[in-house]
Design a protein that fits this description.
By secondary structure, this protein is an alpha/beta fold. It has one domain (2-154, 215-296): Alpha/Beta hydrolase fold, catalytic domain (Rossmann fold, 3-Layer(aba) Sandwich). 42% of the residues lie in helices and 15% in strands. The chain contains eleven helices and eight strands. The protein has an eight-stranded mixed β-sheet, sandwiched between helices. Strand 1 (2-5) and strand 2 (8-14) form a beta hairpin. The longest helix is centred in the C-terminal third of the chain and has 17 residues, at 280-296. It starts with a strand and ends with a helix.
């Protein structure tokens, strides 16, 4: 369903939309760079429902079925990356602060006063921004495969960056699917590989729903622009769990460790063999750590 939040249209999936779960504690799931709400595996969502939670997912701005910002143009990512590496803060079409405002606006529109917020990758950064902007709205924070954004942290493997910056051979469906297969294989969990046929099917389903590479590029600039968050994380006053894969080639393990070190009284759990994806064995490990955290708060 579409809702109006933070002055834009946001596509939302709400397990309590029919009122049957409206009185349950709420878990908000915030997805990562360029990923739609359907990227949350059913095996992640279902156990939360079975544990008694109302689960809210949404498409971040510029992705999926939420408002597009194509009128702001397509950024030059090579120039943005150079600026960032030289220590400058690139201008951004919008900021992670705005995306956190979107998520809080979703809560407002749905009449949710407080929620557990769970974010993966860029979604973890947005969740951190939510905790900084409105700690009274969060019952807890869970930051998964994410980063503080601090200068000097290890960068993604060069091979992964090459795949990320490449373009599909053409705009035809099979070529685009091939491109994303290469990307997801490059960043995936080495101990828990996803079968290629399953991966292709999932990618094709997402492309049929929406494909916005320019929106992904603008989100990347928003990440690069958010250079001050690391210095602010010491102010987070929300019970926090940080989860990270020890084999993550996109957001290295040290990034998760740094996030936990900066957030007071946070708990950190690392997982062997986990990369930057959510295959079933990884989901099971994450939930085993996350559900007690939610139940405690």
């Amino acid at each position: 369903m579409k809702i109006r939040a933070n002055q834009i249209e946001i596509e939302v999936e709400d397990s309590g939309a029919d009122g049957s779960q409206a009185d349950r504690p709420v878990v908000v799931l915030v997805m990562g760079l360029g990923m739609q709400l359907i990227a949350w595996p059913p095996g992640f969502v279902r156990p939360l429902l079975e544990a008694g939670y109302r689960v809210i997912r949404f498409d971040n701005r510029d992705i999926g079925l939420s408002t597009s910002f194509d009128h702001l143009g397509v950024p030059n990512l090579l120039w943005v990356m150079l600026q960032h590496r030289l220590g400058f803060t690139p201008d951004a079409p919008y900021r992670l602060h705005d995306m956190a405002g979107d998520a809080l606006g979703v809560l407002d529109a749905l009449g949710v006063a407080r929620a557990h917020v769970v974010g993966v990758s860029m979604g973890g950064m947005i969740a951190q921004r939510m905790a900084l902007a409105a700690p009274q709205r969060l019952r807890s924070l869970t930051s998964i495969m994410s980063s503080s954004g601090a200068r000097g942290l290890p960068r993604a493997d060069a091979s992964v960056l090459r795949v990320m910056m490449a373009r599909p051979a053409s705009a035809q469906r099979d070529a685009v699917v091939d491109h994303y297969v290469k990307l997801y294989r490059a960043i995936g969990s080495p101990a828990f590989p996803t079968p290629v046929d399953e991966m292709r099917q999932r990618i094709a389903f997402g492309l049929e729903r929406s494909w916005r590479p320019a929106g992904t590029a603008r989100q990347m600039v928003a990440i690069a622009n958010d250079t001050g968050r690391a210095g602010e994380l010491g102010k987070v006053a929300v019970p926090t769990l940080v989860l990270h894969g020890k084999a993550d080639p996109l957001v290295p393990y040290a990034c998760g460790q740094d996030t936990a070190r900066r957030i007071p009284d946070s708990r950190f759990v690392g997982f062997e063999g986990m990369g930057h994806d959510l295959p079933p064995p990884v989901v099971s490990m994450l939930l085993a750590a996350m559900l007690p955290h939610l139940q405690a708060h």
